[in-house]
Amino acid sequence: MRILSFASCLLFGSCLLLLMACGSEVTDTDKDEAGIEPSVSIPDPVDPDTTGAEPFITNDELYAWVDNLNIRDAPKTDGKVVTRVDDRAVLRFTGERSNGTDAIVLRGVLYRAPWLKVSTADGTEGWVFGGAVRHEGEVKGNPPITDQSFSFPVFGSYDLREWDKVSEKQEGEEVDYTITTYRKNGRILEITRAEMGEFYYGWTYKLMEQDSSMIKERKFSFTAQDKPFILEEKVMDYSSAPPVVYQRTQSVEEHFYRLNDRPMMVNAPWQKAPL
């Protein structure tokens, strides 16, 4: 990977500051769409992470949390698919697991986990990625994220098919970004997508009143300048009293070019503070 020159670093930082000022699954699952209604309340976030997850124990019952989950003949993403199971399918852990772990993006979240040998309800045995299964009652997983529908903790859930697309413009030289504006029920949703080659990508979401006063703002970025690479997610809630910010970061060793998909959320606990 190329190393940024001093001048490029300055330009990179300047471009990121400008973007902030403007505000402007090889997958193991098949993506599906969710009919998601816009949120009217702002709950505390539920983390789709594995922090504090229960250990995998022989004969444990595990539950798939993604649809069309591949069960493979070997503990690797290019292993032959022996069967597929649906969301909430029950799998029995045989006690055998891979020696190492893999990093795989599922529904926009990067999980690092071992492969587990499991048995399906009909007795078929094979290997499943540990990030794609959970214990009963475990908080893990999130709805699918698509170009048309998405649900982010604190920021809310949105189906853009229910919004009117007002405008879209593309700008930038060193940093390319696209700003798309939607309107519904007197509110404005502005989505900015930014990218700087192999060094950075990110999204900014702004929910505003008709007069452009801010309700909520969400920023997500993957910065791949120096290892470990950094994923950062921040949500500012201006509608609460007092306004608060939720923030979390995740360090990863894999460049986003080498992942099966691009992360769109951070897999880590939230830190909450007043704005």
From TrEMBL:
Give the region (Disordered) as residue ranges: 30-49
Q: Which domain of life is it from?
A: Bacteria
> Where does the SH3b domain lie?
67-132
- Please name the Pfam families in this protein's record: SH3_3
**Signal peptide per UniProt:** 1-23
Q: Which PROSITE patterns match?
A: PROKAR_LIPOPROTEIN
Question: Which Gene3D superfamilies does the annotation name?
Answer: SH3 Domains
The UniProt keywords, alphabetically, are: Signal
Instruction: Name the InterPro entries for this protein.
Output: SH3-like_bac-type (IPR003646)
> What is the protein's given name?
SH3b domain-containing protein
The organism encoding this protein is Flavilitoribacter nigricans (strain ATCC 23147 / DSM 23189 / NBRC 102662 / NCIMB 1420 / SS-2) (Lewinella nigricans)
